[in-house]
Amino acid sequence: MSRQFELAGKSGARYRYTAFEEDRFLPPAGANFVIAKLTKEGPTVVYAGETDNLANQTWRSALEKARAAYGEAAILTRLNVTRAVREAERSDLIEQHQPPMNG
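Structure (tokenized):
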């Protein structure tokens, strides 16, 4: 059973993200992703991104940088097929959480 986390954007919209194991099958679909430190209080977003193909793992270098800078970090994903929707959600999350790696 995968763990799910709800993240709020600046707009007040709430987005449900799912943690995953990095070695599992990744769908070749568009998705938003956040890299976060997971604590008992919930995720602290250190990076918010989007990709048109989750399977190509373009997020991996950002995850490695986050782990080098912040220690344990997890990747959380949310499938979104439409690029406009992904970009709007990413901007909404960045405005709310001010992730240090997006600065």
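The first strand starts at residue 4 and ends at 8. DSSP finds two helices and five strands in the chain.
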